[in-house]
Amino acid sequence: MVADLVARCLAAGRSALVLAPDPAAALPDAVLRLAGPHGADWRPGAERARYRAFLRGRTGHARVAAGERAAVFAPLRDLGLVVVDEEASPAWKERRSPRHHVREVALARARLAGATCVLLGDLPSAALWRLLEGGHVTALAADRATQRARAPRVDVADLSDPRPGARRALHRHRRARLTHAVRGGGAAIVLAGRGGQGGALACRGCRRRLTCPVCDSSLGVCANGHPRARPPGR
Fold first, then answer.
1. pLDDT tens digits, one per residue of 155-197
2. Which end is more exposed in the chain, N or C (fewer Cβ atoms within 10 Å of the end residue's Cβ)?
3. Among the listed ranges 15-24, 97-106, 150-159, which one has the minimum average pLDDT value?
4. Residue 102 in contact with residue 84, Cβ under 8 Å?
């Protein structure tokens, strides 16, 4: 899909910027192969190679740039497309000065250049979810039938069953499911709930979490029934 977007962008006479958080990701290689002599590799390497990529983009000889966090500043003439893979990855946050987040820089560059910004990910980050709710970005997803057909199977095991042997039966059932998934070439995730997590009040209608107007912490309920702000981390 990304290769198709880049090809369409190049056919329209504009440049494309593709960002991936993992240096071993296959996406930059695929895009650079598509760009051929018009591509600029911004992944970590020799300073001379990075400077050469900068000059090729600045002079207009490079129409496609691909790389990691630093590549978000790659100079490209007539930018038409910006793609950020795994938008929720913590690798996109630059902790050195000047501090920035690649998602925010990518959105700003696309807005200033009149380009299209595509943010990819299995689940949106909290910041992107806020942008979705505010109508600043548009969600693109498959239809509901396709999503259901490709969704993983979810089994919930209740270990609080007091009947004798119930817990052992659940363990055998879970082990069989995991074995079947792995032997079939798939993957499996086991989530085990543990104590220590705090609760929060939420509206039954809109599901919005209720927060303290002073400190913005989640509201809990005291023993006397009155709401109170929970300390951070609880």
1. 776 666 677 766 676 677 778 888 888 898 888 888 776 655 5
2. N
3. 150-159
4. yes
Token couple for 160: 């609080």
- Where in the chain are the domains? 2-133, 199-234
CB 117 within 8 A of CB 107: yes
pLDDT tens digits along 91-108:
999 988 889 999 999 999
Determine the Cα–Cα distance for residues 173 and 207; give it in Å rounded to an integer: 34
